[in-house]
Amino acid sequence: QVQLVESGGGLVQAGDSLRLSCAASGRTFSKYAMGWFRQAPGKEREFVAAISWSGGSTYYADSVKGRFTISRDNAKNTVYLQMNSLEPEDTAVYYCASYLLASYSGDSYYRESFYDYWGQGTQVTVSS
Predict the structure, then answer these.
(1) What is the pLDDT of residues 15-73, one digit of tens each?
(2) What is the pLDDT of residues 77-126, one digit of tens each?
(3) CA-CA distance, 39 to 126, in Å (whole number)?
(4) What gap in Å lies between CA 27 and CA 15, rounded to an integer?
(5) What is the DSSP letter of 114?
(6) Which residues pair with 58 in a beta bridge?
(7) Are 20 and 121 a contacting pair, CB within 8 Å?
(8) Could you count the other beta carbons within 10 Å of the beta carbon of residue 86?
(9) Scanning 12, 42, 46, 84, which has the fewest C-beta atoms within 10 Å of its C-beta?
């Protein structure tokens, strides 16, 4: 049984930083690319960042590029999302997800349908 458990969310002020973690179990973590998505109140879930199995390829939404960094530690079966210079617009529930394959094909990294397992989410609230 595959499980993804996010942690590290919380309430912070604009300009602060947070690091989210996603611990994976139930499958060989290093064989799969991973992604982070988020869903703000009243909005659809959107892509945030993605990383290939080795960490050699990373992708970001334009809204977070330069502020967020995705990384992974395959020895710890964990993927991270370092979030700096947080803005109130970053307020959302953040989800990690496991991609179908080790590396991304074309632009599939931002497509939810290509991720087969999801965590329960962690709330990030940024006050102004």
Answers:
(1) 999 999 999 999 898 899 999 999 999 999 999 999 999 999 999 999 999 999 999 99
(2) 999 999 999 999 999 999 999 998 888 888 899 999 999 999 999 999 99
(3) 14
(4) 36
(5) G
(6) 51
(7) no
(8) 22
(9) 42
